[in-house]
Fold this sequence. Notes:
Elements: H1 2-53, H2 62-70, E1 76-80, E2 85-88, H3 98-111, E3 115-119, E4 122-129, H4 133-199, H5 204-226, E5 234-237, H6 238-251, E6 257-262, E7 269-272, H7 274-292, E8 296-304, E9 308-315, H8 343-354, E10 358-365, E11 369-377
Parallel strand pairs: 6-8
Antiparallel strand pairs: 1-2, 1-4, 3-4, 5-7, 8-9, 9-11, 10-11
Helix pairs in contact: 1-2, 1-4, 4-5, 6-7, 7-8
Amino acid sequence: MNNNINIIRWSIILGSFLIISSILWNTYLFFQYFKNEERIKMEIWSKAQIELINSDQENVSPLTLDILRNNTSTPMIKVNNDGSIEHNNIENLNLTDTITVSKLIKKFSKENKPIEIKYNNQVLSVLYYGNSTIINKLKYYPLALLLIVFLFTSVVYFFYKSSKTAALNKLWSGMAKETAHQIATPLSSIMGWIEILKNKNVDNTYIDEIQKDIKRLNTITDRFSKIGSVPALERKDIVFETESTVEYMKTRSSNSVNFKLVKPKQKIITLLNSQLYSWTIENLLKNSLDSMKGLGDITIEINETNLLVDILIIDTGSGIEKKLYKKIFDPGYTSKKRGWGLGLSLSKRIIEDYHKGSIEVVSSTIGKGTTIKIQLKRAIS
Length: 381
């Protein structure tokens, strides 16, 4: 099936290339044809000039006059051997402006080879002529065609990409909700077993630890259930929410990792979904821990301005190449041997799509560490 799709796709691409090439080639042939026709017309005009010069004014052939009068589309400059200059079909040309005249002569010489008007092997004048309006339009037609093709291709590409992205989002959302549903079923059963254990006089210490894990699993289930739907945002103190998540990760990390939280003394109120925001901070801290291999420093800074709040995650890990600053947030990208590469992608979606904020790699140095910044709007009361 995939092979057939690829064959059809490449056939369409090849067919489109052949059609465009054919149009461009025929346009080139038309252009050369009109150039030749223009040359013949100007040569006839030159011969008419010679006949006009060598005929009495009263005996000039009507055909000669028609040829001279009817050339109204080709711009030309005629330089006579006595130094005088004449022009035709060029509006607002001041012949005393020698610089402009010289530029036009040079331009016309590049467009068409000048024609020498001779009589008895003597050059009476030299005719410089440029491309007519039709030829100029035809000259730029291929560029306009390529631009149209480029725009059309871009529209098709972005439509295809957005459709594919929407399908993938729907797939991941469905998988997330199904995962939440699958976890919730055994959780209900485990909670029932806890009640039975309480009645059997089991040590409460064990039951408390089990309940903590159940609470954690409930949080994870709730997080997954929110993927694909618009979560509710509430007014929360981002300092408290960040500190809670950092403390949770701190107790589950190696003692060789030094956590430092730099925070303001006052509350900073933002519109948050606590569980999804906590998930984002966890993902970033886990990536920092992985890059440091369980040894180093992680600093979490919370800074505020009048309208915004910045949360910086600074680690002393292995660092990221600059070309990967944006790529690490793409779905499926991972530098680990294990994993699906969804953590940072989900974090980006949570911050940018759900919270209308931004997340980015601010700086990183290979072997020294990385700084990632989350920026959110403050809740204006």
